[in-house]
């Protein structure tokens, strides 16, 4: 199965099993907007809890807030979003499709990288054990040609983006002979800047004075509450403020399912530090956040850092943590050293003094900020896509199993009476009633036990608990493990401990 086919299967699986539905589906949907179903919301809430507890509960110097989506419109002038929150867009005149110019170029670069890797794989196959990869990469003419092309295109792209030179971006697209994936032609328009903020009206008067924006990031709600939290919480620098909430961007190129949405959720933390100490904290948070991702157990090699070539208007250092999605390595989280740009500008635009008196240095200053910003929906996609697995079993049957890390699984255990009679449903209900206060469980008595196992595999339930006739005599049940499919007899009294050991947040949080 190609990666594309796999991706299609996992998108339809998400809908079929109640994880993610296209928004407004009975009205033919709304592009790049999605709804989370009954299982999706459980998985999403578990990811939120993992993030929140790792930030707010494990760090005495980090507290959380929940600020409003609507904010004073001047905030977006101060933050730079009104003036600079733009994407460079280009249209293909034949297909009428619109693309982000920098994404077209990045896809082009990724294809050249792929060519290099194919050449290296060919060499490995040809030379077997004698293959010297380093030497091959340094001398093979095809590899060298593609590498030098990558370097040339990359540096021209960075220069054009940094200089905001839209004509240079277009020239580069033409020079690279990039074609529209739909029409196959090079019939491109000029590149134009497009602001990504949604606006609406507040109050009853519809004039410019009533225009407000739907926040494009949650961070600004933290900055404008800096003094409130610092004073009421008696916070001492260095300290952080965390927030989980919705953000909105009018993404023109909405692609790849929940990867790029118009309404999405962010989990952001702004860490306030002494000026001059920001790079030390930036490095620390890069490391801490990578550890957080790896602790989920999706595979260490699925993550890599990507340092930004073009820094956002507020940053003096920035990196992405990229994840290997089914469509390649893409940004999952951003870590940014935002300097004193935001607090400084809010001080200027609001006319209020936003400073911190440092009792250790006896100085007042505008703190510097290191931000960690992760898209909740992207994190969901990372967990879900790496969990999705179509398996052929020893007995020739096939199953779809979601190997979701057990602590994040939407349902922790399914309680299944072997048959719908002989007092087994009543016993199974008793077990449900015992477990439901600690774990999200499902009761299922319909169809054969094999079919019920498959249904639970398909939603990633770590344990199936089967109640049979012996249960009534010996007080034991059969517990089947989702991943190994092994079964063991367990005393009903021991179930709680067993499920807890497998699924508790504690075990993961202790690793951090
Ligand atoms: N406050 C900084 C900020 O918003 P960003 O890199 O623009 O930085 C942070 O966004 C994270 O939000 C990204 O790494 C990504 O995970 C997520 N994100 C951004 N745009 C998104 C979109 N359109 N759909 C889903 N997630 C998105």
Question: What does this entry look like structurally?
Answer:
The protein is of the alpha+beta class and 512 residues long. The chain has 18 helices and 23 strands. The strands form 7 sheets. A 7-stranded mixed β-sheet has the order 3-9-10-16-13-12-11. Strands 20-19-21-22-23 form a 5-stranded mixed β-sheet, with helices on both faces. Strands 5-4-6 form a 3-stranded antiparallel β-sheet. Helix 2 packs across helix 13 (376-387) and helix 5 runs antiparallel to helix 7 (141-162). The structure holds glycyl-adenosine-5'-phosphate. Residues 217, 219, 249, 251, 260-261, 264, 266, 268, 331-334, 371, 373-375, 377-378 line the site of glycyl-adenosine-5'-phosphate.
**Ends apart, CA distance between termini:** 36 Å
Bound molecules: glycyl-adenosine-5'-phosphate
The largest sheet is: 7 strands, mixed
Strand content: 15-25%
| Share of helix, binned | 25-40%
Number of strands: 23
Uncertain regions: pLDDT < 50 for 5+ in a row?
none
What's the shape?
A: globular
How large, in whole angstroms, is the Cα Rg?
26 Å
Q: Going across the major beta sheet, what is the strand order?
A: 3-9-10-16-13-12-11
């Amino acid at each position: 199965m190609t990666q594309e086919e796999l991706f299609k299967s996992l998108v339809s699986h998400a809908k079929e099993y109640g994880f993610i539905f296209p928004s407004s589906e009975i009205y033919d949907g709304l592009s790049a907007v999605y709804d989370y179903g009954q299982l999706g919301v459980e998985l999403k809430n578990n990811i939120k809890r993992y993030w929140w507890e790792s930030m707010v509960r494990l760090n005495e110097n980090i507290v959380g807030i929940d600020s409003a989506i609507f904010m004073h419109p001047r905030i977006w002038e101060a933050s730079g979003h009104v003036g600079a929150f733009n994407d460079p867009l280009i249209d293909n005149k034949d297909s009428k499709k619109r693309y982000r110019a920098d994404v077209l170029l990045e896809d082009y670069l990724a294809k050249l990288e792929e060519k290099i890797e194919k050449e290296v794989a060919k060499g490995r196959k040809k030379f077997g054990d004698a293959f010297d990869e380093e030497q091959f990469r340094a001398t093979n003419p095809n590899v060298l040609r593609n590498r030098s092309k990558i370097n040339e295109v990359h540096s021209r792209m960075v220069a054009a983006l940094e200089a905001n030179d839209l004509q240079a971006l277009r020239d580069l697209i033409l020079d690279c002979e990039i074609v529209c994936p739909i029409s196959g032609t090079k019939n491109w328009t000029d590149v134009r800047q497009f602001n990504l903020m949604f606006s609406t009206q507040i109050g009853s008067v519809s004039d410019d004075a009533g225009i407000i924006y739907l926040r494009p990031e949650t961070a600004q709600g933290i900055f404008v509450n800096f003094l409130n939290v610092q004073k009421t919480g008696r916070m001492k620098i260095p300290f952080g403020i965390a927030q989980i909430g919705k953000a909105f961007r009018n993404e023109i190129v909405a692609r790849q399912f929940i990867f790029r949405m118009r309404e999405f959720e962010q989990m952001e933390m702004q860490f306030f530090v002494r000026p001059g100490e920001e790079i030390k904290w930036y490095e620390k948070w890069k490391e801490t956040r990578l550890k957080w991702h790896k602790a989920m157990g999706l595979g260490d090699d699925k993550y890599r850092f990507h340092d930004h070539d073009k820094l956002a208007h507020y940053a003096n250092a920035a990196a992405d943590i990229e994840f290997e999605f089914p469509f390649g390595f893409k940004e999952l989280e951003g870590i940014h050293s935002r300097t004193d740009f935001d607090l400084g500008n809010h001080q200027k635009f609001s006319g209020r003094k936003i400073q911190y008196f440092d009792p250790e240095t006896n100085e007042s200053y505008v703190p510097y900020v290191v931000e960690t910003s992760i898209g909740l929906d992207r994190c969901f996609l990372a967990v879900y896509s790496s969990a999705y697995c179509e398996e052929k079993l020893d007995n020739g049957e096939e199953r779809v199993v979601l190997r979701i890390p057990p602590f994040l699984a939407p349902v922790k255990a399914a309680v299944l009476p072997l048959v719908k009679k002989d007092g087994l449903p009543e016993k199974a209900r008793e077990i449900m009633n015992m477990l439901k206060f600690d774990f999200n469980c499902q009761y299922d008595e319909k169809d054969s036990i094999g079919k019920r196992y498959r249904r639970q595999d398909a939603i990633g339930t770590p344990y199936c608990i089967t109640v049979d006739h012996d249960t009534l005599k010996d007080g034991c049940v059969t517990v089947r493990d989702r991943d190994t499919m092994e079964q063991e007899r367990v005393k009903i009294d021991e179930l709680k401990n067993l499920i807890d050991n497998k699924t508790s947040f504690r075990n993961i949080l202790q690793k951090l």
